[in-house]
Specification:
By secondary structure, the chain is α+β, with helices and mostly antiparallel strands. The chain is about 40% helix and about 20% strand. A hairpin with a 2-residue loop joins β1 and β2. The termini are far apart.
């Protein structure tokens, strides 16, 4: 497997015709998850929630395959949105976005926001001792136009 140092290198190595679509996926994730830390993991772009380590900090991945861009999320996020994914091929933890179709930017934003909401709901705030309310995400949702 080819090893890239960062997402810019990953995208530069992609076929020229796929780069704009990869850029749209990346921009959608970064718009709704500005505090996510971007890196390379398993040979593809990876976003950790606020830089948290380990499995719990995983927000999403995306990668270029032969005929699609796959967006990888935790299975519950995809399961909760299956009705909106009817026109796409899915697996337990991936949404496959065909390269011959427009990138569904709004859908990507919605899925990433849902992943953040699930993450926040499962976290316990050290300040309050309670699970997160998702209030910070309400601001992101309002500014992202989703």
């Amino acid at each position: 497997m080819k090893s890239w140092k960062n997402v810019d290198e990953y995208m530069a190595a992609a076929p020229k015709e796929a780069r704009p679509k990869l850029g749209q996926v990346r921009a959608a994730i970064r718009e709704v998850a500005p505090n996510a830390v971007e890196s390379i993991s398993y040979g593809m772009p990876f976003y950790s929630y606020k830089g948290e380590q380990g499995i719990e900090g995983r927000l999403c991945y995306f990668g270029l395959l032969k005929s699609d861009i796959s967006l990888y999320l935790r299975p519950p996020v995809l399961e909760e949105h299956m009705a909106g994914l009817a026109g796409y091929k899915t697996t337990k933890s991936a949404l496959h976005l065909p390269l011959d179709q427009a990138v569904p930017v709004r859908l990507i934003k919605e899925l990433v926001m849902a992943a953040m909401e699930r993450h926040e709901a499962g976290r316990i705030s050290p300040a309050t001792g309670r699970r997160g309310s998702g209030r910070a995400l309400q601001t992101v949702r309002a500014t992202a136009g989703a």
